[in-house]
């Protein structure tokens, strides 16, 4: 009996309530109410309460629905749980467990078993005088239940913010959240939702007579009884299986523990040395036994090949004969043309001027491209096409204005005093207040900024820590303190906000919001820098970012943005604060700096060209005596030659400008250098050959110059045409900068050649007549008296002929030259932008955003289409969101930093019938805002089993309302992420955004692009629908994916063109062409070695220089090889010596000394572009070209040069038979 009485008494006790209904206003949380103290039995709910109970507490059934709550309490519960509902309902098990916690607390008929009201206050309402408020309650919760609820929810993602949901619901970062502190935060009055303290007590055993609430829970891998499936892998780590493991890095390729390439290179080098030394020794031993000139058979009258034989050309090969005839045809053609130009100088000069003027007139249509995208990315490239697709469907990526602020003190946040933060806020407010002018109209930041909630909220997006204080001095200075202690201030608010940046109310005594004035969160990894891990408290830099709208085709709006950015840069350049160090950049900064660097060194470039011009003008003259200084000088001819070079450049620019081809700064800066190199070389060859020549008996001036042109023009044509063809073939490159350079350079070089063999030859004839008439240079009207002139060779020619050439071709010097040459290839900055890049590399912790774009055509209104993309319940394990999430787990390998924000998953959460977000007026069908309290507002989807499922078919298109009428979630986060069809008939292209990890070096950016494309390809295969990644830097770094291939292709094509042209124009001498090609290839290999030593990266600029070096190398090689091939000396050594003496001196005095003097001035340049890519590379080109052309090539020819062309020897002997030149030939 006693037992039965106790059981009965316990059951009666178990059925009584702790509270029922709502009473007075909470004094601690305005707008919230206390529950009324009530210890009676549970009370049945009405019909409206039943509907709310079914919505809020699924599966919650206590038979007759007699509960300890009424409709008002259920409404309050629903309002308080909207944020958890928005995020945690993605995982049914998590949400079920959470609602169990709150439903038991609010309505359970067994409240008295696990709840104890400990504090009460009388209701101030006179009508409720008999009631009291419950102002504190103890809630006994099973530790097992708490742990199970936390475990089911800890991995749930918040798709719109790329973070875990608990980071937004726990009052701290998800990694610091656990079962107990999460529940404690939800029941803390400081969260702004709980009207009175609810003290959770965790235990699995009875405590003080109370039995903890330990209801059944579900794991995230379990489905619910209502048919809801298990949580997705993205929201439940247990559902994922093992964490993905990145593939191991390939081991380094070694041989005997040494780098394999080093070993192979050394083995190759040693093998070459052994073979070469063996060949030299063998040849030396052979010559010791029998010495015979290669011309022996030709000179021996008893030999059928002898010149004295009755049939001298009977054994010349077909190729030799063809080559001699081709050579003779060119010689006769150029001789006749040269003679014509000297005879009719005015006609030729006037015709040249007309052609140059007509071609150059196209410069009025000249357009200079400084847009980096246009410079480095081909319109047909993958990255460019993907960028264009992104821009056309979602609008161009916003423009970014960014500051990185540091102090001279250590940690920015802990040590720094409030005054410095106030100074940063003042700076930020000053920037917000900047006013620029565009076409007479004032432009402010509000006119151009990104305002995602407009027109509901027109505040600009400012990603700054100061937005935790709503950019307000009052909020920054807000503190709770007394005379002894500071209880809460800016620092405590900061510490809270970095853990919960989307919070509307911090848990400190301040109760200030963290959300930015623009209506969105400011994530700490975007606004802070220089911290370790997630220890934001140790940040040493503040990062302030102003996103500005970009415009694809609206030039007026884009002009306004550019004008404001210009004012932004001007302001920050002039801003000074001794406490702050500021690095900054605007969207236009790169383009501005390209212009600035090009313009800042104009004086250096001008000095460089003046030095080259002065040298050319002075060096062309061959002064016989001091008395004849102004007669023998050729200043006017040198200036004319320079003007011809510049005219050819202007003509090339004009012709292509006529065709609408835009110029680039590379063209303007590099082509004059290139054409001057080629042109000067040809000028020196023509003039110095004339100076060394003796006029033959009965030969007039026009015939002499014609004959000289016939001798040297084929060599000039060989080099110029080789370069022209090589450059034009280089225009096949996909890189716009390389293609444009190649086109302009090829045409300029060829026009320069045409002007030199016409206009310059005519000018040379006029100058020769002036000199013969003893008239002064420049002042040609003044004439010196006649006098005896003894003609002598120039100093440089005598040096090369008597000293240098014999020395370099000595028997013991030649092997040393070959050995040394083969061993060679072994293996500014006042710009504010440069300072910004240094700080960005040092301080930033988040890389650029990356968008995974799903192209148009996927059916999002079908379950199959949804499952292929989404990351929530029921989605495919290899869906887009899931694959990007998996990649983020191994971010060190994939460079994907976070889970992607998913408009589709957020939309499913928004449209759920449990949410109050998606509602409409049942009488009009108009959209009903979530804040409206009206009985006619009904949910978009019914609270039924089918209504709780995802919308499909026509039910899917409330999406348009989600994107346009829900500013805090849909519009703010995804207004541009979905490209809707006209009239909202369907969904077109969409994107899912995440971030790369921090990228510092070029290799990081290249690797990020590669990995993003690999990931997108995997997604494409699994979805059977194209997905591609897009980030703003892809168009710039894509060139590096193929730069090695493009370099190999361009240089190989150029070498092939040089080989073919050289073969033909040297009279089909194949071996000569091989030697030229080998020498140029060696120069290029050495250029790569210099680039490695000088740390010059291989990119579009350096590739342009390599293509140019290929062309300039022809000047160093082809003239000497041709001079060798037509020489009729006795053996290879003598032929090489003659070629080096005659052509080598011209090459040295022309291209080598001219360019060397000009290049040295570039060392004074402040521009890094000029310092690295022009001074260093140009200097290397000249020095390596001279070393190979004037040292290595003659030695190589002396060993393996082509044998004499018999037909050419016979023709030369016949041509000069009976003249004074016959003596020279026989000698």
How would you describe the overall organization of this protein?
The protein has 1227 residues and is of the alpha+beta class. The protein folds into four domains: 19-202, no CATH class; 323-365 and 621-822 and 1042-1226, no CATH class; 403-483 and 496-593, no CATH class; 833-913 and 941-1040, no CATH class. It contains 45 helices and 28 strands. Strands 1, 2, 5, 6 and 9 form a five-stranded mixed β-sheet that branches. It has a four-stranded antiparallel β-sheet with strand order 18-19-13-20, sandwiched between helices. The protein has a four-stranded antiparallel β-sheet with strand order 26-27-22-28, with helices on both faces. β10 (254-255) and β11 form a beta hairpin. α13 (345-360) packs parallel to α25, α13 (345-360) packs antiparallel against α28 (736-772) and α36 (959-965) packs across α37 (967-974). The radius of gyration is 42 Å and the shape is elongated. The termini are far apart.
